[in-house]
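Allow me, if you will, to draw on your knowledge of protein folds for a short while. I am sending you one protein, given as its amino acid sequence and as whole-number tokens for its backbone shapes. Kindly check, if you would, that the fold set down in the tokens agrees with what the sequence suggests. The record follows directly beneath this note:
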Amino acid sequence: MGLRIGLLTGTFDPIHLGHLELAKAAKSECGLDEVWLMVNPKKVNSIIEFKDGVQDYRHRLKMSKLATEDTVGVKVYVGPLAERPHTMTTFLELMRNNPDDKFVFIVGMDAISRLDGWEDYESVVNSASFAVATRPGAVPETINSLKRRLGPLGEALDVHLFEFDDHGAATSTKIRDQIRSGQRPESVDDSVYEYILKHDLYI
């Protein structure tokens, strides 16, 4: 019997408590056995909009490992595809390499609304499901609209909505600005903050 594994991808520059709370909420609300954080290494046909000037992949990977080391069921993916760009080709290969497991993409409503613009989205819809974070009280009209645009493929779209309050609207951009101004960001784990200071990141 395989596992239900959530995939939470991002630049994690730096990883913060909002990322961890999202992973834990998806795991709890969507019946996932594990959540794998996948740190996007570089910009090559990425499915997310990659930002200029991000920290080196090795730093972002290490911070993500530090942040998750005490979080049961949430870990950083470090397998053979870890340093491959985040393209659908990479994710589909990950699924083929783990045929007994069921993969669930953890995304927000904005990301799922653009699904029909993803590379090879047909294969994704047929191979994986989605755990979609929504604000409390949100109406799922976005999902209904997406299913209509997908046509017959919309019947195969497997979506589980769960409420998530954004953990105080923590963002990596806000954290970087706070560090540059000499503040201690509340939404960063102590071990991550110590690593940032040790390596003079974001200054």
Notes: Residues 4-167 form a domain with the Rossmann fold fold (CATH 3.40.50.620).
